[in-house]
């Protein structure tokens, strides 16, 4: 029996339930720091983190879209097993599945399409119906929300959050990638034409700097 515990009870955690079932997990629970007795979510039990993290033979995933929170959870529980979860209806290009063997905690949802010559760090989220072109590089803890298009030759820094239906136009080539600075936020529907700065929010089409994320 495959067992999976999902950190969180938010909407993203509920979406991961579908992915877990697709991947053959039959014994699934959700984890919260504080949970009442006999609490359930979608018919599945909700436990305190402290009740589950010491149990053997359980896989874990993080059902929280915010990059910084995902990073904090992993750094608090680095000894847990965080497998990659790749939906059976996601499309991976040549060599991507093999490349992902070097990563942990990656989530790729149904309908996502990843072409070849891409690389992934740890705990990258690629949500529903995203398209990722060739020669994209993702550092760890990146969140790519539904419907995002990355057109190719893009380096996405650690902790970047890309909002729903944003479009990132391509870099000049594999040796000159467009760069999204670490911990930058790309707003929903934004169209990014240029490199972005670190710790900065961008919105609009074309995307313009809105504020620093200090």
Automatic annotation (TrEMBL):
Gene3D superfamilies: 3.40.50.20, Hexapeptide repeat proteins. Pfam families: PglD_N (PF17836). Belongs to the transferase hexapeptide repeat family. It comes from the Bacteria. This is Sugar O-acyltransferase. The active site is at residue 134. Residues 3-75 form the PglD N-terminal domain. It comes from Acinetobacter tibetensis. PANTHER family: ACETYLTRANSFERASE, UDP-N-ACETYLBACILLOSAMINE N-ACETYLTRANSFERASE. SUPFAM superfamilies: Trimeric LpxA-like enzymes. The record marks 135 as: Increases basicity of active site His. InterPro entries: AcTrfase_PglD-like, PglD_N, Trans_hexapeptide_repeat, Trimer_LpxA-like_sf.
């Amino acid at each position: 029996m495959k067992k999976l515990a999902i950190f969180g009870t938010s909407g993203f955690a509920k979406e991961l339930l579908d992915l877990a079932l697709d991947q053959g997990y039959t014994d699934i629970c959700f984890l919260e720091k504080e949970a009442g007795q006999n609490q359930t979510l979608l018919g599945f039990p909700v436990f305190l983190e402290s009740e589950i993290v010491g149990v053997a033979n359980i896989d874990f995933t993080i059902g929280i879209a915010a990059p910084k929170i995902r990073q904090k959870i992993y750094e608090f529980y680095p000894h847990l097993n965080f497998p990659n979860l790749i939906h059976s209806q996601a499309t991976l290009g040549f060599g991507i599945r093999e490349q992902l063997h070097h990563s942990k905690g990656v989530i790729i949802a149904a309908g996502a399409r990843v072409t070849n010559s891409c690389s992934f760090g740890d705990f990258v989220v690629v949500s529903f119906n995203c398209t990722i072109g060739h020669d994209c590089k993702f550092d760890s803890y990146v969140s790519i929300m539904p419907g995002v298009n990355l057109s190719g030759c893009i380096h996405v820094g650690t902790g970047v959050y890309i909002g729903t239906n944003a479009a990132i136009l391509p870099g000049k080539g594999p040796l000159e990638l467009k760069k999204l600075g670490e911990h930058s936020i790309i707003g929903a529907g934004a169209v990014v034409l240029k490199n972005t700065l670190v710790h900065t929010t961008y919105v609009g089409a074309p995307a313009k700097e809105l504020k620093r994320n200090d």
